[in-house]
Amino acid sequence: MMSIFASVLLIAAFVGVSSGQQCNVKGQCVGDVLDFSFPTTSLDCLEACQDTDGCTWYSFDTSSSFCGSYSTCDYVDAELCPACQSGRNSLVLGAIN
Question: I need a surface site. Which of 14, 26, 35, 77 has the fewest CB within 10 A?
């Protein structure tokens, strides 16, 4: 029974990775910025991205509360902003439901 559960978890993890969904990636997006704000939490930053037309990625700087909404994200650079967390708009809580 436990091996079936483990198999299901492994498949679920693979589907998430293979579909390109990413969240809480360490670093800042390098791409085209659509908008920015200074929310108090990363969840608020995710919501700002969801509310911005064309936003596909977000970056939230935990040290300054800078939130960037991006139309493109060529890559995530951890050296550019070690305190940043980035992710795809498809993982915003409202977009999952």
Answer: 14
In tens, the pLDDT along 33-60 reads 999 999 999 889 999 999 999 999 999 9
CATH number at residue 55: 3.50.4.10
Asked if residue 2 is part of any domain, the answer here is no
What's this model's pTM, rounded to 2 decimal places? 0.71
Distance, CA of 15 to CA of 36 (rounded, Å): 31
- What pairs with residue 29 in β-bridges? 76
Q: Name which of 63, 65, 69 is nearest 38 in CA terms.
A: 65
| 35 Cβ neighbours under 8 A, 6+ residues apart | 48, 52, 55, 68, 69
